Structure formats: structure tokens, C-alpha cells
Amino acid sequence: MIREFLKRRIWFYFAGVITLIVVDTLQLIVPKFISRAVDSLNVETPDIGVAKLMAIGIIGIAIGMFFTRFFWRFFIIGSARKFTYEARKILYDKILSLDMSFFDKNRSGDLMANFTNDMNNIERMLGPGIVMMVDASFMSVITLFFMATSVGWKLTLIALIPLPFIMLISLVFGKFIYKRSKKVQDTFSDLSGFTEESIDGIRILKSFSILPKFENLFLDRANRNFRATLSLVKVWGIMWPLIHFISSLSYFITIAYGGPMVINQKITLGMFFAFNNYIGMIVWPLTAFGWVINIIQNGRASYTRILEVLKTQSKVVEPDNPVEIDEINDITIKNLNYKYPDSNRYVLKGVNLEIKRGQLVGIVGTVGSGKSTIVKIISKLYPVERGYVYINGYDINDIPSKIVRTKISYVPQETFLFSTSIKNNIAFGLDDFEEWQIKEYAMLSAVHSDIERFPKSYDTVVGERGVTLSGGQKQRITIARALIRNCDVFIFDDCLSAVDPETEEKIISSLRKSMESKTMIIITHRLKVLKDADIIYVFDDGQVVESGTHKQLMEIDGLYADMYKKQLIEESL
Ligand SMILES: Nc1ncnc2c1ncn2[C@@H]1O[C@H](COP(=O)(O)OP(=O)(O)OP(=O)(O)O)[C@@H](O)[C@H]1O
């Protein structure tokens, strides 16, 4: 990716490097002008005209540097920004295209770090890294040349003896600084992650009365971050005085050797001044060499991490010869044995299932028996091999995910609302919608009257993750959001658990009435709501152990009947 980008922006970088070299050259001419000006003030043959001319020349150079500095920033730093802008977009699209198994494996914090820390490191490599590299190489060679041509090679070489140590120091300290900065970053993200989690879970912390324990855990993290920052400051604190000390050794040598040369008139006072200026100028490029190496190392490590994500292929593969379907009439599952990607355990064993258009299908069973897994496969959230799952008689792998997801609306167990108005949450992702539609679907989900009671009604902004709403209200809004999409199949994965049983029953029967032609798959632990279902599949340990209508299952008197009777007893208590 970087290679193609550099190829595309080669002329920008070229222009940037040229303007950078112009700035450096202009900068190096200044001491020459100062040298001439100082010599023109010689008490024996003073010439104020030359001094004035040199002063005007210095102003001219400053103006030239003003423009050229702007342009190298524009060309090089601008290009680096452009890279991260493009790369962030590519990474975002890639991440959105991946199936759920990717998100099972990667923590959101790590993915966020790809967008922030890693992108910043790459930007630093392609921007300041390149600038420093060009600057340091050109400035050190040219400054050396200017030094030698003004006072001769001998004094130049002697005066520069201490300077290679600056390179060494910046290289060694650069490594320390990198390690410690990383620790500061890591401890900081640990601290901010912990803080975020504590604030998110504040209700649980308070209700469990474990605030003091969490305060200690917070202090512990804050302390680690503080100590890491302090140890970084110490390294900086040692490095810069050391560099200054070594560069002052060069000044010392210059005065010790160069001073007598001025007295013996081997060089002029102006040359001596210019030489001292050049020593100051060469310290920076030498320090920069060490930085450049570190910046490139960090940038490459970050780039490798980003490439790893970009190389990930979605396990839900899109078909080479896609089958277009207008509507979903039936879904068939044939003898499905299933294990999740990267897992060796079969969570579904020999499952057979048939769902016809317009049916109300119930999926019930024991905890962890594979109920959610089956609907996630039908919704193409997880991959499945060919030959097991069919839609309208076509293998699900031959139908593009986009088509499946526009025809099947899946409401998961966990509710998630965006931090925007209730109206926008319900109409989420729709370009075209009417106010009455939102109300209609809110009514169907039995949440309309709740929303009307809010002072701003449908314009009420839902707080971060919907904290201003009750659990049941949030669940019903997510149902309205699914219904408005007008799909062929609606899957409700235990998404009414926070609603009282009567309301759940009411919602399901009113949905049934108003959406007769739609297929509804309902996973629930409350068996009462499925009394009118066309078919109920009973899961246990990854297998369908019973299936039939409520009446038939009661007659079988197996697992379903057991669970149902237990629930009746619990209700009557
Ligand atoms: N992403 C995943 N990767 C690996 N295993 C998983 C994954 N999701 C679920 N499982 C496992 O698959 C099995 C079935 O899980 P599933 O969520 O389908 O059960 P469920 O019947 O819906 O449970 P519940 O009634 O508690 O919601 C469980 O043993 C679970 O640990």
C-alpha cells in the first residue's frame, strides 16, 4: 500500500525534497553573510555599506525561507496526512466487510489502536521521518562542506571530534525513549480503558458496593502511568544536557584551536563567527539520525499490524456466480454439523430445519444449545460450508450477503442504540422514510406510548448506549428498527427478555396479525408466547430433540412439556 502511494505521490515528495534542500541551503548562507558583515566592520577598513547589504540579504533569505518552508510542509507533511486519510478509509471499509468471527477474535480497543496509534506512527514515518532523513543527510554533508571551505579541513575535523557521540547518544537514547513512550501509551490506554469500563458499569459497581476496591484498582493504574511518564521524563532530562555538553566541547575546541588562528590572521574574525554558527547547525542533523531510525522502525511495525488486518479475508465468501432472489420463500437446513471458525467443538449436530414463508417459527431449548448459532448462520453472519443451508432451494453460499441481509432482519440478544434521536434510531440506515412509518412500527413494537411520554417524544436523544431508556424500552425500539426495514424474514433472538411476559405476548400476536405474509423466527425462553406458532424446534446440546406445534409437543411429553410445566409452576408461585 505504501509503495503504491509513494509511486502516486512521487512528484509531491520530489517537490518537497527540493524545497527542503533550498531551505537548508538558504539557512547555510546566513552565516556566510554574517561573516562578511563582521569582516566589513573591521576597525582598520570599516565598510558599513557592505554590512547593510548583508543585513538586507539576510532579510531576503528569511522571506525566501518563509515560502519554501511552507511548501515543503505542504508537499511532504500534506502527503503523509493524505496517506493516513486514505489508509483509514481502506481499513474502515475492510473491517466493516469482515464477518463476526473476526470481531470475536479482535478486541475493539486493539482495532481502535490501529486507527489512532498505528496510523500516527505511519504518518510520522512518511512525513517528519522523510523530512528528517533528507534534512539530516543534506545538512550534515553541506554544513561540513561550508565549515571546511570557510576555515579549512584541519580545524573542521578537530572541532567535530566530539560530534559522532551525539549520533550515538541519540540512537541509544532513542531506543530507551521509544520503549518508555510505548509504556506510557500502554499504561495510558489501560487506564482509559479501565475508566471507560467503570463508567459504563457504574450501576453494577454501585449496586455491588465495590467502589473502594475499584478506586484502588484505578489508583494502581494511574500510578503505573505516572511512573512510566516519570521514567520517560528522566531519559529526556539526561539526553538533552548530554547533547549540549558534547556540542559545547566542540565550541571549546574551536576557541582553543580557532582563536589562535584568528590572532595569527590565518582566518578572519568573520570566518570564526560563521564556523561557530555552523557547529550549532550540525548538532541537529546528527541528533536527527537517531530519531529517523526509531521513527522508521515504529512506522514499519505499525504498518505490519495494519497489513495484517487488511490481509484478513472474510470467512463469509461472496459467490463468483451470485444467485439473485426477489423474496425469501423457504429456508431449509439439512443435517448441519457446525463448529465456529477457529474452534474444534461442534455446537450443532445433525440439525434439520424447515421454515416456510409466512410461518411463525419458535426456537426454544436449553441454555447454550445452539439456538442463536442457527439464526446467525441463516443471517450469513457466520460462514457455513456448502450443502447444508438453502434459501429458496439455492445454497446460501450462492446468494450474496447483501441480498440475504436486506431480506432477513435479525434482532440480536444485546440491544445497541446509537447516540442519536429515537426517530433516527428507528429509521437507522434508511434514506427515505415518513414520520408515520416510524410511529406505526413503534406502535407495533408497543413502545409508542412510552416514547410519547418523553418531553421531546421521538426527538429524544438517546444517551450513550441508550442509558436514558429502560432495558425493555431499548429492546422494543430495536424491534421497531428491524420492522421498518420491511424484510421477508424477521428473527427475534431472545430480544424481549426485558419486557414483561404479557407485553411480549401482545407484541408477538399483533406482529402476527399485521405481518401475515412475513416469516417470523422467535427464540425465547418464555414458551407461553409460542402457543400459536406454526412450528417449534426444541434444541438440546446442539441437536433438535423435538419439533411440532405447542399441542403436539405437549402430547409428546418430552423436554418441551417439562420446560413448559416448570414455567407454569413458577408463574403461579
Ligand atoms: N463466536 C463463537 N465462537 C465459538 N463458540 C461460540 C461462539 N458463539 C457461541 N459459541 C458456543 O456455541 C454454543 C451455542 O451457543 P449459542 O449462543 O448458539 O447458544 P444459545 O442456545 O443461543 O444459548 P442462550 O440460550 O444462552 O442464548 C455455546 O456452547 C457457545 O459457547
Automatic annotation (TrEMBL):
Residues 14-298 form the ABC transmembrane type-1 domain. It comes from Thermosipho melanesiensis (strain DSM 12029 / CIP 104789 / BI429). One of its GO terms (molecular function) is ATP binding. This is ABC transporter related. Keywords: ATP-binding, Cell membrane, Membrane, Nucleotide-binding, Transmembrane, Transmembrane helix, Transport. InterPro entries: AAA+_ATPase (IPR003593), ABC1_TM_dom (IPR011527), ABC1_TM_sf (IPR036640), ABC_transporter-like_ATP-bd (IPR003439), ABC_transporter-like_CS (IPR017871), P-loop_NTPase (IPR027417), Type_1_exporter (IPR039421). It comes from the Bacteria. Its main location: membrane. PANTHER family: ATP-BINDING CASSETTE SUB-FAMILY B MEMBER 10, MITOCHONDRIAL, ATP-DEPENDENT PERMEASE MDL1, MITOCHONDRIAL. It is a multi-pass membrane protein. One of its GO terms (cellular component) is plasma membrane. The lineage of its organism: Bacteria, Thermotogati, Thermotogota, Thermotogae, Thermotogales. The chain crosses the membrane at residues 12-30, 50-72, 129-149, 155-178, 235-258, 278-296. Residues 331-566 form the ABC transporter domain. It is found in: Cell membrane.
